[in-house]
Amino acid sequence: MLIETESTPNPATLKFLPGQVVMDAGTRDFASPEEAEASPLATQLFALGDVVGVFFGRDFVSVTKAPGSEWADLKPDVLALMLDHFGGRMPLFNPTGSAGFSVPAEEASFTDDPADADIVEQIKELIETRVRPAVANDGGDIVYRGFDQGKVYLQLQGACSGCPSSSATLKNGIEQLLKYYVPEVTEVRAV
Q1: How far is CA 81 from CA 3, 58, 117, 155, in A?
Q2: How would you label 143-172 residue by residue, b for 16+ Cβ within 10 Å and e otherwise?
Q3: What is the pLDDT of residues 109-142, one digit of tens each?
Q4: Least packed by Cβ within 10 Å: which of 67, 85, 125, 151?
Q5: pTM of the predicted model as reported, rounded to 2 decimal places
């Protein structure tokens, strides 16, 4: 088995491609060892000590290193864990039981005004068809959180969260795209 790696716009994050589906549907972002307890792979990655973020996409895993650590030292350990995990066809998540597994509640979501339903639908479609594929190429994801009085609220995940160029991507890329196609949009904000 070969696991390819790609750099991302965030120098602290590398994208690992195991050559197979990682998540059948959706994505999952782990920002702490406690959150990672739902996944054996994420738990092992955080146990390395120099990992501060793990993100599962459709066909990739993004790993964010701690400040002060070097990819030259960390990358071989990450690759070894992933080779064992994917080569051994181990489950991505712990089986549900008394502890259970649940997807975290959507934080910082807004209740959209029903009068804005057409606008919200346009925004969601643009994000799904134009924005998410580009963001996934960079090892992350973007999640719609709400629309209120012309402002669109989005959450960046994976390599995009904390990326030095994320504010430029939001303002110069996504905001301009949404304003062009949906004139009711006046601003895009990260939550």
Answers
A1: 11, 19, 45, 29
A2: bbbbbeeeebbbbbbbbbbbbeebeebbee
A3: 577 888 899 999 999 999 988 888 888 877 878 8
A4: 67
A5: 0.71
